[in-house]
Write the structure tokens for this entry.
Amino acid sequence: MKALFTILATLLLTICTFSQVGIGTVIPDASAALDIVSTTSGLLPPRMTAAQRDAITTPSQGLIIFCTDCASGAGELQIKLSSAWKNLPVGDVDDPIAIGDTYQGGIVFYVDGSGGGLIAAPTDQTNPQWGCYEQSISGTSSALGTGAANTTAIVSGCSETAIAAKICADLTLGGYTDWFLPSKDELNLMYDNIGQGNVLGLGNVGGFSDSYYWSSTEYDNYNAWGQGFYYGNQAVPNKFYTNYVRAVRAF
């Protein structure tokens, strides 16, 4: 009899080892390693600050935490990818993300209709030179969606450090490190949608100065595109001029 119990215990242990685990259910879904069923409680992931997250030793790809002081203090879910920690898409329960909303470290100034868009930092970074005077940066574009690639091209193609693109690329703000200098068309959208352009009737919710701002779009070896945030005119100042910078990021 003792031998029979031993065999049964071993069999049950083997079944438990290789089958799904159910909480609140005796029949967990066959596709899930863990199936939690509840109508009164939720799943609470580990909660920690960004500093505590960064202190995790060799975090595994796919690790999920809730960063309590990210997203301008609102907190957010984050996942570790192979390259860096990234936020998990989170939106309002009842309402879609809208232009002018405070979201993921800044102010939304463009939405693409598919759950993504662009965010402007809530304040100016500084007023540096564009840099790279008398030097051509290959491949910068004026189009929407090219600011990040422009910024990478400038930083990798120019050895100067205290310049507009480098300041944005090195920025850590609201728990995010993927900021970049906007392209010419992205900069114009900021002016129109959350700046003095006021085409949506929101007013200057971005708090922009009545001054010129740099874009990441080069004009030639000596000039780069910038935009005035008083009248909205775009021009090509010399790269050694100092203008304002407002970093942006995509979501």
Remarks:
- The chain has a mean pLDDT of 88.
- Helices lie at 2-18, 50-54, 147-157, 164-169, 184-194.
- The chain is about 20% helix and 20% strand.
- Residues 117-250 form one domain.
